[in-house]
């Protein structure tokens, strides 16, 4: 029998009760309707969840992953912050314009403070103040937690939503949705001292544990802006999937996690390289992520499903190529001086090692395999790793679209597409909307120039190319001849303009007409009958968009 001379490696326990991340993986906890904000008490013993759709706050015991209390609130509770000492939970009541203060010992509301349009709340590190964004008032309210009174109102950019405070408490960063910017508040003077342009429609943000960076989620262009807090400038822009919500940084600062509400995934960003290393299929409408203090797992609100899911983060990324070569971070306890890390039976290469973290390079392999770490204390299992096959592309529809991009769904078919990280049309990144093993649905972003480009799909299993997508200039209509004809239809009409070669429809007042493309500058069509006389639009439609001219229907002479 093998004798343990020191504690064996293990996934770090969420609590002293022996609950581990590997056990928690896949747990789904029913809460109220449309859960959004979630925050954990210090030590992670309880999670408070704002259920916007059912006007309640659920209290989860993280040792048992069960709801132990349901607290009625006002209309539309949205976000939650916990005081540093764990005695108070602050909940924004959006529709009522209130900030509710909950005594966590009794789970009773002890104060309701008026804050117009209360959206997101954050508590200062010393617990003396909370900051609440007011979206309709373009302000952030500062509340004294000793008296539960608003002591200052700070003007910021337009439609502020996300609020986050630096670890030293000296600055508050505010995501201003309608300004496409982040406002920076000096907490000593309660004034806005800087405005930082970011992506389109910044909605939520978070400050890294070391305070060096702010991660801003831009819902309009599906990106994350990375702000260097020393210079208050954007140093990186990272593409993620459709409808991103909150970005949360792991306690060790190595990875940022983005909840993508449309494709039901969580994007994992390596904060050293600012690159997405994994998209994890997770939940139904993932919105807000809160980490357990030890970093081995996180709690994710699923706004559509009405649940909180438990996401294991002991092996990140937990999928990669069958050829090996992926850099993987393992999180747990008693990992120091590891002598081996194995993916199934094959040994990986250890590149960094502490008591709570180990970095390794994966060997070649296949299928789903356990990840084990061996030290002088024995061998422990940290989680699973999934080897993915190289993706293959078989089709794309439509294969062309407007230069400006559009919300039209583009479907890419193939094999081994699950877990797709990125899709490119030439150099232009497309936004992932939905993913399965055989189909990717994406949206084309605007391109710099018209023309065809190679379709590239990146997954944990590798890279696939072989299809093309063409960006098309918008058409123009410069002339319609003749300009009129009888209401009975049948007039042969010549339409001139530019970008007409790809025309796929011509309509007269919304009625499709037979047409023929003669060249990039000329299309002929036959006017359909019209029930009324008058001047109406002649619309030419193609992958680049629409263009219109006019045609007048004239009634025949009668008695």
Automatic annotation (TrEMBL):
Ranges for domain IPT/TIG: 311-388, 390-472, 474-554
Gene3D superfamilies in the record: Immunoglobulins, YVTN repeat-like/Quinoprotein amine dehydrogenase
SUPFAM superfamilies, alphabetized: C-terminal (heme d1) domain of cytochrome cd1-nitrite reductase (SSF51004), E set domains (SSF81296), YVTN repeat-like/Quinoprotein amine dehydrogenase (SSF50969)
Lineage top rank: taxon: Bacteria
Keyword Cell division found: no
Alphabetical UniProt keywords: Signal
Pfam families for the chain: Lactonase, TIG, YNCE
InterPro entries given in the database record: Haem_d1_sf, Host-pathogen_enzymatic-act, Ig-like_fold, Ig_E-set, IPT_dom, Lactonase_7-beta_prop, Quino_amine_DH_bsu, WD40/YVTN_repeat-like_dom_sf
Name listed for the protein in its UniProt record: IPT/TIG domain-containing protein
